[in-house]
Amino acid sequence: MKKGDFIVCAAVLLLAAGIFLSGLHRADAGVLTAVVRQDGAEVARIVLTGLEKPVTVTVDGAFQNVIVADAGGVRVDSATCPHQTCVQTGVLTRAGQTAVCLENKMVLSLEGGDAPDVVVR
Predict the structure, then answer these.
(1) Residue 28 pLDDT
(2) What is the mean pLDDT of residues 19-43?
(3) Which end of the chain is more exposed for a tag (fewer CB within 10 A), N or C?
């Protein structure tokens, strides 16, 4: 082995160690957060990890959505919109899941946790 081989090996090991350590220090790793947006603007943010009692958020607009969050997940509990698709979505429990009310321009999504960036099927 030559001197250049050692330098390349050391650089690869340092790069691998840096990538590994940056993954360990993610500030929000494991924290599951429900985010409520209406017309693209954030209306509410609820940290579900460690939540001890239920939290209710009401989103008003053309229609009304009542969102209930607890330690088990978050759901659109009731809505005054005609299609009720957001209510029929059920309980969201994993990061990346969403419930949408098109009539009220409301999006409920879960962020954080240990979710993958992309799911391919």
Answers:
(1) 47
(2) 78
(3) C
Cα–Cα distance measured from residue 92 to residue 121, given in angstroms and rounded to the nearest whole number: 20
Q: What phi and psi, each to the nearest 5 degrees, are found at residue 19?
A: -65, -45
Superfamily of domain 32-112: N-utilization substance G protein NusG, insert domain (2.60.320.10)
Q: Residue 113: how many CB atoms within 10 A of its CB?
A: 17
Q: Which of 28, 50, 48 is nearest to 109 (CA)?
A: 48
Contacts of 58 (CB under 8 A, 6+ apart): 64, 65, 66, 67
pLDDT digits (tens, 9 = 90+) for 86-103: 999 999 999 899 999 999
List the chain domain ranges: 1-28, 32-112
Instruction: Output the pTM of the full model.
Output: 0.69
